[in-house]
Automatic annotation (TrEMBL):
<keyword id="KW-0479">Metal-binding</keyword>
<feature type="domain" description="Squalene cyclase C-terminal">
    <location>
        <begin position="330"/>
        <end position="465"/>
    </location>
</feature>
<dbReference type="InterPro" id="IPR008930">
    <property type="entry name" value="Terpenoid_cyclase/PrenylTrfase"/>
</dbReference>
<protein>
    <recommendedName>
        <fullName>Squalene cyclase C-terminal domain-containing protein</fullName>
    </recommendedName>
</protein>
<dbReference type="InterPro" id="IPR032696">
    <property type="entry name" value="SQ_cyclase_C"/>
</dbReference>
<dbReference type="Pfam" id="PF13243">
    <property type="entry name" value="SQHop_cyclase_C"/>
</dbReference>
Length: 504
């Protein structure tokens, strides 16, 4: 790659954008916006939120996300429309007939979706029962005897939800999804807002404030919600911030692609100071956890400011490391990030190197065993196998030694087989984000054993990125939260990282 856009200037522009915008540029969330409709009808922007739900409903009656990923936002939007129809003594913000028709279509779509396999999203095993409960409790407002209550998806119960509401919500992790706790969440002292925000979630903040507008108009949480809805025209994003995760992920991704340290140094200045001992959350207000901590530690090491990753030992589960405590489902990418953090520490030949080598070997074995027969990996934090494959393959390649060679040859073969005719890669369609992950993986895995086929695949992938990846206004959502979302800055960093690595 010798011609094309000024990638260095684009990197500098991205760094400036990230520093100016701690929100992650996530775009509006159907789930969170609908929760505000239901939980905070008193909040400014109610009519705009309801109109957004009507505008975003798809022809089949569902909302947001492909396949089963539509279930949570569809349940949330349907319950919200039923809540609007059931407001006593109020004239609905939009014509009742249109709201009722949209709710009926949403109900039909939800009934079809609960009959299908449910993908893993954040605490879906509690969110779905809570939303189904809410929908069923409001069906009477339709005045339609034919409106049947929804069943839970096969194999799903409300046991975990009942345990959460029985007191398990007092774990800091629950701050992010406090909206499903119920009345106990209102004003709960266990959930202290940060800059007015509970759990980096507008829905959780609304649940904490309660069903009535606070009497104090200067209340920090009220100010936050008003500001958030005003910025989005009534709509709100999937999360209020992922500032620590975002800055560290971008810094590490671009540093390993060859961007000079001084260009990226500003991204690290506001990160938590003693991550090696104290860890880091995704953003202020989130619970501390292993994945972000490992990403920050790896980024610091790549930019010449390493810290011993002692904090991560508490997540050691023997065969693998946990993402959170407690943990419902282990994560391949969390383990890949931890492998990278531990591997970076071993470069400095620490006194307790044997302990770290043992952990690296255990994680590497676990990751090899989690690889699918076709050569790919998948994960609970991202819907695309190209993301998980990049994170796992590159961590193994960099830090797990020659034992991984056979495993990674299979991953290269899978990537070459999956490339689309236009040069892109993608789970549902070819996307710039997934193409960037595939290009980056092929570049690194074939650097020592170059092949004509891999070189041609990289060239075609870069051509796709140059044509389609540098001016994406709204990327298809692939990151997994309560629903799928698209962190625009991270996507742009992935594209630039792939193009820079190819240039190098």
């Amino acid at each position: 790659m010798t011609a094309g856009p000024d990638l260095d200037a684009l990197v500098a522009e991205l760094v400036d954008r990230v520093l100016d915008d701690p929100t992650g540029a996530l775009g509006p969330s159907v789930y969170e916006t609908a929760r505000l409709v239901s939980l905070a009808p008193w909040l400014d922007g109610d009519t705009a939120r309801v109109r957004h739900l009507l505008d975003e409903q798809r022809p089949d009656g569902s909302w947001a996300g492909p396949d089963g990923y539509a279930l949570v936002p569809t349940l949330s939007a349907t319950e919200a429309l039923l809540a609007v129809l059931g407001r006593e003594g109020e004239t609905p913000p939009l014509p009742r007939a249109g709201l009722a028709e949209a709710a009926r279509r949403g109900l039909a779509a939800a009934a079809a979706l609960v009959a299908r396999p449910v993908p893993s999203t954040v605490v879906f095993f509690m969110l779905i029962p809570a939303l189904v409960e809410g929908v069923n409790a409001r069906l009477a407002v339709l005045g339609d005897a034919a409106a049947q209550p929804l069943a839970l998806p096969h194999g799903l119960t409300d046991d975990a939800l009942r345990a959460l509401r029985g007191g398990a919500w007092r774990n800091p992790l629950a701050g992010h999804y406090l909206e499903i706790v119920g009345p106990a969440a209102v004003g709960a002292a266990e959930m202290e807002p940060v800059d007015g925000v509970v759990g980096c979630s507008a829905a959780a903040t609304a649940a904490w404030l309660g069903p009535r507008e606070p009497a104090d108009p200067t209340h920090p949480s009220l100010r936050f919600l008003r500001r958030a809805q005003e910025q989005g025209g009534g709509r709100v994003a999937a999360m209020t911030s992922l500032v620590f995760y975002e800055r560290a992920w971008i810094a590490g991704n671009l540093a390993t692609a060859g961007v000079p340290r001084e260009v990226l140094a500003e991204l690290l200045k506001e990160l938590p100071g003693d991550v090696g001992r104290s860890g880091a959350p995704t953003a202020p207000g989130f619970a501390y956890e292993a994945e972000t901590s490992a990403i920050v530690l790896a980024a610091l090491a790549h930019l010449g400011a390493p810290q011993e990753p002692a904090y991560l030992w508490q997540y050691d589960a023997g065969g693998h490391f946990m993402s959170t405590i407690p943990e419902h489902e282990p994560s391949t990418t969390t383990n890949a990030h931890i492998l990278e953090a531990l591997g970076c520490h071993l470069v400095g030949d620490p006194v307790d190197a044997d302990r770290y080598r043992d952990a690296v070997a255990r994680i590497a074995t676990w990751l090899r065993n989690r690889r699918h027969p076709d050569g790919s990996w998948s994960d609970k934090w991202h819907a695309s196998p190209y993301f998980a494959t990049m994170r796992c393959a590159l961590a193994l390649h960099r830090y797990a030694g020659p034992d991984t060679a056979d495993t990674l040859r299979g991953s290269v073969a899978w990537l070459l087989e999956q490339q689309r005719e236009d040069g892109s890669w993608g789970r549902w369609e070819g996307t710039a984000e997934e193409t960037a992950y595939a290009v980056r993986t092929l570049l690194e895995l074939t650097a020592d054993t170059p092949s004509e086929q891999a070189a041609e695949a990289v060239q075609r992938g870069c051509a796709f990125l140059l044509e389609h990846g540098l001016n994406v206004e709204r990327h298809p959502p692939l990151w997994i939260g309560k629903e799928l979302y698209a962190p625009a800055h991270l996507v742009r960093a992935a594209v630039l990282g792939a193009l820079l690595a190819a240039r190098r």
